[in-house]
Amino acid sequence: MITLMMSAFGVFYKSLPSVNVKTFEGEEVNINEYTSNGKIQLVSLWATWCGPCKRELNALEAVYPKWKDDYGVEIVAITLDNARSVKRAHTMALREEWPYTFFSDSDGVLAGGLGVRGIPYSMLIDQEGNIVSTSEGYYDGYEAEMEKKIKDLVK
After folding, report:
1. pLDDT, tens digit, for every residue of 35-86?
2. What is the three-class DSSP state of 78?
3. Band of the pLDDT at 13, cuts 50, 70, 90?
4. Are 143 and 63 in contact (CB under 8 A)?
């Protein structure tokens, strides 16, 4: 079930839509079910050709161990690379040694359903699976701003 809310800018999803994404090994996973697991999760939509996406994933790597230990956060990185480029995304993730959970939305079903226009596109998901914050692009101060939002969820 998809829960929608309206905003001045159009439809806003209260939770991720019930669509399948794939692991790098090709296993299908329902992203709504995956993010409704009682954990705080930061879900980032990215692509290999996106410079700001790589900067975001590299920057998050520095704070992830602390967030994981202090708040139980899981970072989920979903590549939007097409089916031919998913292997490149997998190779990049291994080469960079990014410690995140990776999925692929190579058909763009999730991104299209959310109306994503620019990447990186991040969503902070609370313990009940609700989207509590979204962010488009990467900028200085992103990690500190996100940590404040995460802290608010564990109070």
Report:
1. 999 999 999 999 999 999 999 999 999 999 999 999 999 999 999 999 999 9
2. strand
3. low
4. yes
Query: In angstroms, rounded to a whole number, what is the distance separating the alpha carbons of residues 89 and 136?
Result: 20
Q: Which helix (H) or strand (E) holds 119?
A: none
Total residues found in the chain within this entry: 155
Backbone φ/ψ region at 22: left (φ over 0), alpha (ψ -120 to 50), beta: beta
Q: Is the pLDDT of residue 126 over 80?
A: yes
Structure tokens at 148: 């404040």
Domain 19-154 has CATH 3.40.630.30: no
Tokens of 80: 């939007």
Report residue 14 CA to chain centroid gap. 15
Residue 142 to residue 152: CA distance in whole angstroms: 16
Domain boundaries, the chain: 19-154
This prediction has a pTM of 0.90
C-alpha–C-alpha distance, residues 152 and 24, integer Å: 32
